[in-house]
Amino acid sequence: MNLQTVGTSPHRGGGFERVTGQQKYVADIKLPGMLESKLVTIDCAHAKILSIDTAEAKKVPGVRLVMTAADLPQPVPRFGPQVADRPVLADGEVKFHGEPVALVVAETLHAAEQAARLVHVQYEELPAAFTVSMALDPAAPLVMDPSLRPNDPLAKTNIFNEHHFGWGEIDESKADLVVENTYSFPMVTQFAIEPHAFIAAPDKDGIAVWSTIQHPYWLQKILAGLLKLPLSKVRVYAPDPGGGFGGKQHTKYEPALVFAAMKLGCPVRLVLTLEETFQAVRRTSCETHIRTGFTRDGRLVFQDIKAHYLLGAYVDIADRVVAKGSYAGAGPYNVPAVRILSKSILSHTPPATAFRGFGNPEVNWAVESNMDEAARLLGIDRLEIRLRNLAKKGDTFIPYDKPADGDWSQTVLKAAELIEWHKPLSPSRHRGIAVGIKLGPTTGLSYSLVRLLADGSVIVSCGTSDMGQGARTVVAQIAAEELGVPYDKVSVVMGDTATVPYDQQTSASRSTVLMGNSVLKACRAIHAQLKTRLAKVYKIDESEISVEHGRVALPDREYPIPELIKVALGKLGGEIIGVGEERKDAEQGHPLGGPACFYEFNCTAVEAEVDKSTGDVTITRYVTVSDVGTSINPLQVRMQDEGAAVQGLGHTLMEHYIFDEKGRIRNLGAADYRILTTMDLPKEFYSETVENADGPGPYGAKGMSEGALLCVSSAVASAVGDAIGTTIRDLPLTPERVWMALQAQK
Amino acid sequence: MEKLIPIEMNINNQHYKLEVSPSKRLLDVLREDLDLTATKECCGIGECGACTVLVNGKAVNSCLMLAVEADGATILTAEGLASNGRLDALQEAFLEKGAVQCGFCIPGQLMAAKYLLTQNPHPTREEVEEGMAGNLCRCGGYERIIEAVLSVAEKGEEQL
Amino acid sequence: MSDFEYVRPTTIDEAVRFLAAHGTEARILAGGTDLLIQLRNNDIQPSFILDVKHIRELQTGVQLKDGLVSISATVTMSELVMDPLINRYFPALVDAANVVGSVQIRNRATLVGNICNASPAADSAPPLLVYGAEVVAIGSQGKRRIPLNDFFVRSGVTVLQRGEFVASIELPVPTTRMGAAHVRRTRRRGHDLASVTLCCGVQETGVVRLSYGSVGPRPVLALDTSGILADEKAPEEAKTAIFESIFAQASPSKKSMRASPAYRLAMLRVLGKQALELALARLNDQG
Known about the structure:
- The complex is a heterotrimer of chains A (746), B (160) and C (287).
- With 746 residues, chain A is an alpha+beta fold.
- Chain A folds into three domains: 15-22 and 444-584, Aldehyde oxidase/xanthine dehydrogenase, molybdopterin binding domain (Aldehyde Oxidoreductase, domain 4, 2-Layer Sandwich); 31-126 and 194-242 and 247-278, Aldehyde Oxidoreductase, domain 3, CATH 3.90.1170; 285-441 and 590-745, Aldehyde oxidase/xanthine dehydrogenase, molybdopterin binding domain (Aldehyde Oxidoreductase, domain 4).
- Chain A contains 18 helices and 28 strands.
- In chain A, strands 3-7-1-14-11-12-13 form a seven-stranded mixed sheet. In chain A, strands 9-17-16-15-10 form a five-stranded mixed sheet. Chain A has a four-stranded mixed sheet with strand order 18-26-27-28, with helices on both faces.
- The longest helix of chain A has 25 residues, at 514-538.
- The radius of gyration of chain A is 27 Å and the shape is globular.
- Chain C has 287 residues and is an alpha+beta fold.
- Chain C has helices at 12-22, 35-40, 77-82, 84-89, 91-98, 103-106, 111-116, 125-130, 148-151, 236-246, 261-286; strands at 5-7, 26-29, 48-51, 62-65, 68-72, 134-139, 142-147, 152-154, 157-158, 165-172, 178-185, 196-203, 208-213, 220-224.
């Protein structure tokens, strides 16, 4: 196929607005008569609320409302994407450090902040369970009220759910070597540079909400349920988020704002501080106990994985994170026997939610580190042991799921070549390599509307959120390609549930494939209409006309679509509207509700130096290679993979929450929670792809952008382990931790 | 109530005369009073650089400066980078090199880059890394940002 | 941020008079890079903010007079780094000023402010101690000079009295050749608060002045007059013994989340050696 726009890298859709500062994020929006608000919290991880005295706060000039749970409908409404466990405001008990007990609304933010400090909360501090072992202690306080989980045998524990996956029989006697270890993955936060922001405003007989949300339609559904309003009366505006990374998928404080706005009859805005975002969203931390059996020649015999994921005080989407994150835990390998037990453990910590990689990096870190250890013990090269076990294209490496959909060894070999795996290194330098895999979406539903206008320009309406991944650009490229129009004549409308058709969600790297296919289908619906109309105009049979891929072929000659639009539309003009629908239905009986739409496969290779006197790790070369099927936009693919790598280097080298002895987070905010800066980058950085056009998306594309984060820790730890001659099993690999490991050897 | 203080500022070549409350930061006045929302707030403590503006030609975090301190100052924000509808070379380069992802940090990044190149028109890569280290990008677009800044530096001073 | 009144004196007299009347309710604003964080976090709620940047007498910048280099209260870290006098005589102070925060922070943060905050982790303190700095404080009792080593009490506390503020910091121009270097440990390479900050100065006479911070309630200054540290041929064990006595005063907090005491103490030793080597190299370069 001769592609025009797809496969090129035009300027990013919305790029102009972003470099000129015109892009309006939620916090930039001002509505007439809008009030400001501030959350009231107590400095406790777990407490019983005895009383809340709002009198003094209400006296602050400009204060319009101090809302507590008592001011809400009773019983206090609860919500959540998996289970409705989260109260709109703390209901008699604070279950994590930062859980809001009240919302103060005032004419200015200044007044709201002043008043928030004058809300006097009397409380009794209770013991908090904020680690896996604390939460699993039989004497631990229960995080979730058992009445919220009737008929649940686990109701009197902090285990919200247990997931069992696997196949084959684990037989240790078949293994020549069993490697058994426990690995921990830290609690980290999404840290989008745009803090979450929300506005709620009465809207005629309904409500309008502006949110930094990734899933506007899901928010719409939740709000409609809470307010008992028809979906059509809940309008969610979702301006492009300033970074999401999973942390903006689900409803947070929108319900509280909506109740406040309805009470006051005017718009109310809440913009979180960065500190508050740390208390609103985070990744599941995890302790993985893993036993891996190998034959003498390095072939996998079994994987026995127990993953204890630590959720927060409310489930959010994290139980799904646990299921999906551990399901492919055995990796992209052919393994005869696999047993996976993953537990979703509740704790008195901020609610864990989706975060790029969706539970997979947590287990990958254990599986890949064990591969390394086996390689060392068996005297097999670390690259070779992976190649020996890697599933080949078409292999059913997870029973009942999609067979391997790529030539993954090509990806691994490309990474090996770029890191010069087989070349000798100076003694101070060491290499590491790892692979990662993640399932794409298991279900999905994306509608789109494409309008080919009379002048040959195009409007695409689709409900994907462009939070930086570049969906705007990709769908515009697809429409331009299919309709034969220049890229810059395509406008993309997103982020308004009242005008843009339904999209299930923006997650799991789905949009290029699912929304991409939806837009492709909408364009093809336009092709069909063009054909019918042109047949009429030219008085020929439809079978004599073909419309595809931007061109119309008439019996005599071919035309680009734009040249024939006016002819097709006739005197009245108007436009041609195509509707696209792409669905991936659930499959009954499948452990995840459906097989993978595609796999994200990545190989990361690292060359590093370790300063043995300080424990400093310097990454001298970094290679990430992803199998993306086809790059719709090569530059954006590169941006996403580089970004995923940099983000992964964060939890690998420096990021983690630090708690005090009572479960309060000590390093809230940017001063003591460190992420990478420009000075912390690898010295050389290669981001490459493998493209065999073997994906289910448009032009053979697969989803991408999480893949490059999956095995960052494993690859870096592989190099560090090689350098220091010992394996570190806890992240992040801070200089202090590396130094400690070196000391322990002495 | 706080006593309001009259101040005057030149922002993006426009003269402003206003009265501000002393506890307002320059960032608050830009965003809330003047609706110049290109300048963003993230960390609020001078760690992320999203609120970077040039005050009298110097890059500063506008979250760490009171508005009253800017009395008499000449200020440049991201809104003022393009002139007569023509993008600044840095803005062009950011688009061209793929430095823009979610975009939230970008106005701050651009202002830091602008300052860097006025101080040092031909920086080395290391100098760019150092000069841009006060601006966090969670999309992890640093490689592209650095490349964009370097590409402008290579074109020479006259285009700044 | 709480409400406060903003005061902008233009003379020292005016400032002194204001502080004599309102000293306990006022906070001094120079660069503001620490003050605004404290205000934002409501760690402090002063009634008055006194901005010293418009005081004419404090706008003198960096000046050399009678063998003393004085750095006035309005001089920022960026200005310090660019200053020819500072570069010529006090390169280790340039090292330190260069790593205080990001460019944006250095464009606002002042040296005097850095010292007045009395953070144990202040990077400028060790070089200033090594170079023998004095603080010039002004109050209603007049002007007084305080050796920097007597200035710090503990984290956040100095010997400044109510109503007193620092007008400048003065550094004697070295009369003997000296090589000095500042080094630090942080959690990442990008700007960060130091978990250990250290400066070593080697004089051609063989005296070594070593100062370190972030490992106790205030920065520490120690001297080695034995000549052993400065002697590149001296045996390692002898040097180690001196370092051990120098570092005996380190008492890192167990509560810090930046690094454990064990790591800080070990890094103090690594940095000590590293700074000594750099300082010696700089001394030799001058020769």
